[in-house]
Design brief:
5-stranded antiparallel beta sheet; elongated
């Protein structure tokens, strides 16, 4: 019984964290500045696992002029080409908050927490619900 209580408590904490993170991300999307960035070059880095390609974008901003953004994740095949474009979002005055304007890029963390919290609450809460119904 103590284990299920711990599961419910962890689920509730994760749920609260997910809701707070979701509210933060929604405020980011609502208040963020959107801009279309263009690839100016594709950096190539080689290590013991092979060669990886990292796109580098120039993103125009109303306050900062042109910002340069280098994507942190490389790919083993170069799907990006110089001149390709992508839509970005960032907080005005904070160029370090640049993100691709994609659902998974922005909401992945809170949604993962929310899914985990729902599972834990269902498991722990279900135990207490069944225990109450059947008198275990």
């Amino acid at each position: 019984m103590v284990i299920y209580l711990i599961v419910v408590i962890i689920g509730a904490l994760l749920f609260m964290s997910a809701v707070a993170g979701l509210k933060s991300k929604l405020a980011f999307v609502k208040n963020g500045e959107r801009a279309t960035g263009t690839i100016v070059r594709v950096d190539e880095k080689t290590d013991e696992d092979g060669t990886y390609y990292y796109p580098v974008f120039d993103i125009p901003s109303a306050k900062h002029g042109i910002m340069t953004y280098s994507h942190s994740t490389g790919r083993s095949t170069s799907v990006w080409q110089v001149g390709d474009t992508a839509v970005f979002i960032f907080m005005p005055g904070k160029p370090d908050t640049v993100r691709f304007l994609k659902y998974t890029e922005i909401f992945w963390g809170p949604m993962l927490l929310l899914a985990t919290a729902a599972d834990l609450l269902l498991i722990g809460g279900g135990y207490f619900l069944i225990r109450g119904l059947f008198g275990f």
